[in-house]
Amino acid sequence: AKTRIGPNAGTRTTAAAQPPPASGPTVRAAAPTSVAVNDCAARLAPAGRRRQNAGVDPHREAIERIAARPPLQAWGPDMVDLPWGDPSFSERMLREHLSQDHELASRRLETIERQVERMIEWMGLDQADDGMGGRTAGIELLDVTCGPGLFAHRFAGRGIAVTGVDISPAAIAFARQMTADMGCTFIEADIRDVELPELAFDAAVYLYGQCEVARPAELEAILGRIRRALRPGAPLAVETRVASKVSRITGTAWHTGIDGLFGPGMQLVLTEQGWDMEARATVERHHVLGAETGELAVLGATARALEPEELTRLLAAAGFPAVEFHPGWDGMTFDKSEEWLLAVAR
């Protein structure tokens, strides 16, 4: 699952979701503090005059790279995507998913509980019956970019057999542990190229704005892949941000930390946030500077603002002609709930 990265990312917290007993289960940036202006590149001395012994001072070299950075651009070529599949990064990211102090990576458990109830109702999954009054019996659900299985666990607790897909090895390992003996299956893979069985599922969920971080062509392919994995008439629940509420602010922020989300040791993280008008996407660029080594990594995250008309068009093209929107989850209260909507497509 992809996370909105912000100045407090990677901070250790004390209250975290834990595996329940056997009977039980592209971080949003904080408001920028200044306008992002790059007026240094043109004033840098020629490379030959900056230092006589090139490579001696990696910190200066990193600063010069930052100063010469290009303008923010959606999926910019100067940025590397966050390493979701890296084992070490996924372990650090898992801490954020399980934290109950914020909803910057996953929703709190009590929010998930209420959202699962709403989705079961809106997708019509409560109409199944096992002959003994049991709801949702026999339903098979696909959880796309499932993260550590927090939603899957809640669905499984209602008798739904969940198959989850996520690229993060730590998240998949946690999900398997949490849902042991609950009839769930988890696949460690990139949803952009995973092979899914056709006509195998009665419903699917694609939550927390994960559809926004895929490039346009990738999203079309993902939705088509989901449609082929679903049985005829099966619903897909897609969660996105309300496009009109997506921030268009351009600015910068910074923070320091030790053993945080971006890696071990002390680091200075300089974050830029902007709006790419052509792509209609928010863009975050993180310059991560190692305090001891001077090594610089430039990581990026792009998230499109999908208007309801655009989402409807994409879903229809993938084979979901009917879409029902639930802005703000129809009045449900959780962190920034007014900024989110759930689309149920069939």
Order of helices and strands: HHEHHEHEHEEHEEEEEHEE
Radius of gyration: 21 Å
Class of secondary structure makeup: alpha/beta
The helix content, as a percent range, equals: 10-25%
Counting DSSP H or I runs of 4 or more residues, the number of helices is: 8
Strand content: 15-25%
Record field, number of beta strands: 12
Mean of pLDDT: 86
Shape: globular
* End-to-end Cα distance: 24 Å
Walk across the major sheet and give the strand order.
4-3-2-5-6-12-11
Q: What does the main sheet amount to?
A: 7 strands, mixed
Poorly predicted residue ranges: 1-45, 48-52
Walk me through what this model shows.
The N terminus is likely disordered. The longest helix is centred in the middle third of the chain and has 14 residues. The chain has 346 residues and is of the alpha/beta class.
Summarize the structure.
The protein is an alpha/beta fold and 346 residues long. It is built from 8 helices and 12 strands. β8 (263-276) and β9 (281-290) form a beta hairpin.
Q: What are the key terms here?
A:
alpha/beta; 7-stranded mixed β-sheet; 24% helix; globular; disordered N terminus
List the topology elements:
Layout: H1 47-50, H2 58-67, E1 80-81, H3 87-98, H4 109-122, E2 140-144, H5 150-156, E3 161-166, H6 169-178, E4 185-188, E5 203-206, H7 216-229, E6 236-241, E7 251-260, E8 263-276, E9 281-290, E10 296-304, H8 308-318, E11 323-327, E12 340-345
Parallel strand pairs: 1-10, 2-3, 2-5, 3-4, 5-6
Antiparallel strand pairs: 6-12, 7-8, 8-9, 9-10, 11-12
Helix pairs in contact: 4-5, 7-8
